[in-house]
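User: I'm putting together notes for a lab meeting next week and I want to include a structural view of one of the chains we've been expressing. I don't have a solved structure, so I'd like a prediction I can at least talk through. The sequence is below, exactly as it appears in our construct file.
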Amino acid sequence: MYVALADNEHQGIVPVPAVLGNGGDPGRNLYWGAAFGVRTYFRKSTDWKEIAVVANPNAYVLERCIFVHSASGTLLVADAYRGPEIKRAISDFFQAAAGLEPEIGEIHSKEIGKTIRLTGRPALLAYVGHDGLMDFALEKDFQGTSNERRDAIVLACVSKSYFSNGLRTTGAQPLLWTTGLMAPEAYTLKAALDGWIARESEQQVRQRAAAAYAKYQKCSLAAATHLFSTGW
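Assistant: Thanks for the context. Below is the predicted structure for the 232-residue chain, given as structure tokens.
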């Protein structure tokens, strides 16, 4: 999972309180350490357990967290990209969606007392954060194949319009993306993952995401359902 930390200074977002919009502070960032940020929300979930944390795994990522799904054993790797590196975060997302991401390697988990080997070809990819493609274009496309099924989630404003061309070349299938402005918070992501892990249909995943979004955003289910889309 590729999370671009909210950054008032370096991204074209509607400014948020400074403590939430500091793209160099994952611990309090809107999309990572805040109440509905990815790390905080999944850490507090009874369905997931955080089993490893790596600080500064590369020059672009401030923190990497690894969670395991209690019931299924599914591993979730979430990277918090520095706010100014949003372009890199989106590029890395497309590269992984094309099946071109190199293996992360081995990470030792003190929580479970063993070493985990993380491959570079996950079955599901997700991008969470500001829709940077509203502000810039990528210099290249990432050509992949559809020989292996790869699903993609893009939680960003109007992501179906802005990410569709790039995602199509990767060979990945859009499981969930958006048609309008939205708050890319972790309750929507968790709801979609719950459905995906349960092998539900694309429409069932969409409905799960919409229900979670309607609950937390206090909007109608109809409006939330209209916000999310699945497939091409």
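A couple of points you could mention at the meeting. The chain has one domain: 2-184. Residues 202-217 form the longest helix (16 residues).

User: Perfect, that's what I needed.
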